[in-house]
Structure prediction request, 121 residues.
Amino acid sequence: MGILDKLFGAAPQVLPTSVRDMKSFVREVEESPVPVIVDVWGPSCGPCKKLEPVLVDVATRYAGKVKVVEISTEAEPQLLAELEVRATPTLIIYKAGAELGRSAGYRPAGWFDEMIAAELS
Prediction:
């Protein structure tokens, strides 16, 4: 915690938005006015659990500029089929409703900072 956080209080933590079906995917991802990082995760996935605090940090630091959305492998089967995810965690980046790219596996916070600066700014 930095000196400014001690004086003025830390920014409130922003949690990823949970999406479970096609309707909420359209609303939260495809119609989002800001770029979206989608995390497809599984409840028994070790790297997914390691990635969770990183995504909370990214969602908090980039609040209002980038949205973080999470989709469990237990979500609506039609949604998972549409996303064509083959491994967890899978990160899919959207801007203006279109997929920009995807990456499978754990990524550290620095990867998100570089990707946001290069692709979403």
